[in-house]
Amino acid sequence: MAASSSRSPSSLSKDRVLDFVARSWAYIFLALMVIFFSITGRGFFSLANFANVLVTSTMVALMAIGQTYVVITAGIDLSIGWTVGLASVICARVMRDAVNGGTDVGLAMLMGVGLALLVSIIPGIINGILIARIKVPPFIATLGMFGIVRGAAFLLTDGQQIIGNLPANLQESLRSIGSGSLLWYVPTQGLFVLSRPTELPPEISRGVAALLPYPVIITAIVVLIFAFVLGRTRFGRHTYAIGGNQDAAVRSGINIKKHLTLIYVLAAFTAGIAGVLHTFRFTAGAPNAAEAALLQSVAAVVIGGTNLFGGEGKISGAVIGALIINVLSNGLVILNINPLWQFVVVGVVIIVAVLVNQAQAALERLRTNV
Amino acid sequence: MSDILLQCAGVCKFFGGLTALDHVDFEVSRGEVVALLGDNGAGKSTLIKCISGVYKPDRGHITFNQTEITNHSPSEIRDRGIETIYQDLALAENLDVGANVFLGKERTRKFMGIFSVTDDETMRKEATKVLDRLDIHIPSLKQKLVNLSGGQRQAVAIARALYWNAQLVIMDEPTAALGVPEQRKVLTLVRTLRDQGVPVILISHTMQDVMEVADRIVVMRRGRVVANVMRAESTVDSIVKHIVGASEMA
To answer: Which of A279, A334, B73, B226 could form a disulfide with A91 if both were Cys (CB 3.0 to 4.6 A apart)?
Structure first.
C-alpha cells in the first residue's frame, strides 16, 4: 500500500478509472457495440433482433460455461464442440426412431433428451480420467477425444450431415420448445403468454418478438447454477485452488483427481445441453452443430477475462464473451458486411482481450505492491 | 531443557547403498528454535522428511509428545501437530488470505436454508485473529496473495499451520527468496512462534539468520550429527568448520 499512498489524490482517482475500465471493458465494449450497430444497422435495434441474438448466443454461452471451469483449472477441452454434435444427433435419432416405432411424442422427447445428456457425459468421464489420473495433458487428451466423438457422431448419422425427416407431430412439439417463448410481443396487439397468435398479417408478423425464449431461459438457469457453484461453494473454491496451485490443493487434502474428472464431466454436460437445444431449435440433429462454436467458446472464455493459465475466471465473463461474439456477427450481417470478416474481428477482439487482462493484472500489482 | 517435544533416536535411512541418515539422534524441546545446518546432501532434508512422514526410517524411533510416530503417514503427523512449511509455501496465490488458511477445510454456512456456501466472512475474521497473534497486519484481507509481499505470504503459511494447531513448525529455507527487510520480518515471526511456545526447526544456509534466531544449532554432515551446540556458546567460524568437516581433520 505504500506505493499508492505516496501518490497524489488525482493520480489515484485516475488509477481507479483505469482500473474500472480494465475490469469491465468487456461490458463497455458490448454496450458500445450495441450502440454502434443500433445507429448504423437498419433493423438491429429491435426486440425481435435482440431476442434472435440471445437465442443464437445460447450455444456458445452453454459451451463457454463448462469451458470456464476447465480453463480455471488450467486445462482446456477441445472436444466439447463434437460433444454438442453427438448429443444433438442422439437426441434427434432416438426421438425419431421412438416416434416412428409408435412411442408417444412426449415420452420419445424425454427419452431423446435423457439419452443424449447421459451419453454426452461419457467423453467427459474419459477426458477426466485421462487428464486427472493418467496425467495426459488436457490439450492432447481432448484433442484425441475431439476425433473420437466426431467419428462417433458421424457414425450415428451414417455419414450424413443431418438427422432429419422427423415425423411432423414430433417437429411440431420440438418447435414449441426450441422456438417457443414464455412471453411474446406482437406489435399493435401487446403481450401474449406462452403462445403467439397465428394468422397475422405479414407486416405485423415480422415484428413479433419472443421476449423470453425457452432456450434463453434454460441457458439462464444453467448460467445461474454454474455461477453460484463456482462463486459461492467449496466446489468452486477448490476449482480456483487447483488452477492457482495444484500442489497446494493436493497438500490441503483436496481430492483433485475426483475434482478434475468432475469438471470435464460438467464441461461435457453443458455441451450436451447445447446439443439437445440445437435439435429442438432446428428440429434436426447435426453432428457438426458446434464445429465453429468450439473456438468461439474458448474465445468467449478469454474475452470474459478467464486466465488461460488457470486460477482466474468468471461465468458472467463467459456469457458476456458469448454475447460479444454473437452481437458482432449479427451486426456485421445486418450491415451487409461479408460475414467472413467476423472471423477477423473476433480474432482481433480475443487478442485485445488478452492484452487488456494482462494490463489489468499489471495495474493491480502496481497499485497494491509494497 | 528437559521438556522434550520431539525426539529422534538412532534414526537410519538408506537409499540403496547410500546411507542418508546414520544413527541420527535429534531432539526439540518446547520453546526453542533449533537450526539444522549442513552442506547439500548432508541429510537435513532426509531427516525432515522422516519427521514429517514422507520417508519411513529404516531404523530408529521418532516420538512426538511421548507418542511413537515413526511409521505414521504425513497426514497423520500433520494432524498430530507437526507442520512443515516448504520453500514454495504451498499457497494458492489466486485466493485471499482466509481462503488459504482454510483451504480444503472451508467453513460453510447455509444460503437460503438449503445451499451450503463458503463462509468467507468468518474465514477472514478467523484468519485475522491468527495473523494478529503473529503480529502481522495485512491491509486488506480480500487481497489475493499474489499481491502480497514474500514475507506476508510466509506469514499466511505460518498462520495456516498455527490455525490448525501446529505444535512444531518446520521451516525449510524460509528466507531464501526474500529481500532483506522481508527476511527480518520472517525471523521476527520465528521468534514470535517460539515465544508462544511453538518450537521451530529452521533449515537454513544463511549463517546470519541462524546466529540471529536459533537457540541451538545442530550440524549434519554425511548423514550424521556432527555438532549439537547452544548458539550462545558458538561462533560462525566454529559452525562453518563443522559444516565443511574441518573440525574432524584438526
So the answer is: A279
